[in-house]
Amino acid sequence: MARHVAGRGWYGKLVGAALGVTVLATGASVWAAQAGAAGTPKASASAAPQKVEAVDKSIAHASDAGPRGVNITIDDGPDPVYTPQVLALLKEHGVKATFCMVGTQAEAHPDLVKKVVADGHRLCDHSVSHDTTMDRQSKAYQKQQILDAERMITEASGGVRPMYYRAPGGAFTPYSRGVAASRGMRPLGWNVDTKDFEQPGADAIVATVKEQVSNGPTILFHDAGGDRAQTVEALRQCLPWLKEQGYVFGFPER
């Protein structure tokens, strides 16, 4: 997996705040799991603790929609400018996606987190501060980044927990995968890296999808971390093209 480092200057501003977030204790309140694609919140942050069922800690790539399934995954948000545009396009084409959210972004824009859930999309933990050196940090730091982001996203959503964990830049470790899986979050990879964060132009993003979708079903886009107008335009073209090719949209396997 490529390690994404370009165009991420704004994340540096988040690190100081992220380091100040208290590590989620083992006995902290647990919220009900996201219920299918619709994911109606089952409990609030003040609910009694509930058991979280562990999932497979291997990195998921496959789609639950079968051999012609594709998974649209959207990273780094939510963003007040681009996330609403992405949501509008997904709704227009009847597509459900997985939103891999940065904890501080979710905390800053809870209305958008709730909108993502209300539209039937799934949530994914993308760490507190998008540190692409996660795999070189201590176990305590890795755990803090994963569990604090889980809490921040769950609180922002109104009680819907993330179903996946995607390490920033693919910086997984066996330990971080185990931590996420123990909290019911399947580690999530990708097969098609559109490199839209490099802003290569909408045509280039579309061309990457068309050339690489045969590599596997999980396609990586971004709705935050910079100007994502090219991504929005690329999605406008890619979603109908994928349908025309006989692909169906699903979620990553759990």
From TrEMBL:
Keywords in alphabetical order: Hydrolase
Pfam families assigned: Polysacc_deac_1
Domain NodB homology per the UniProt entry, residue ranges: 68-250
EC category name: hydrolase
Signal peptide per UniProt: none
Molecular-function GO term, any one: hydrolase activity
Database matches in CDD domains: CE4_NodB_like_6s_7s
Documented EC number(s): 3.-.-.-
Protein name as catalogued: Polysaccharide deacetylase family protein
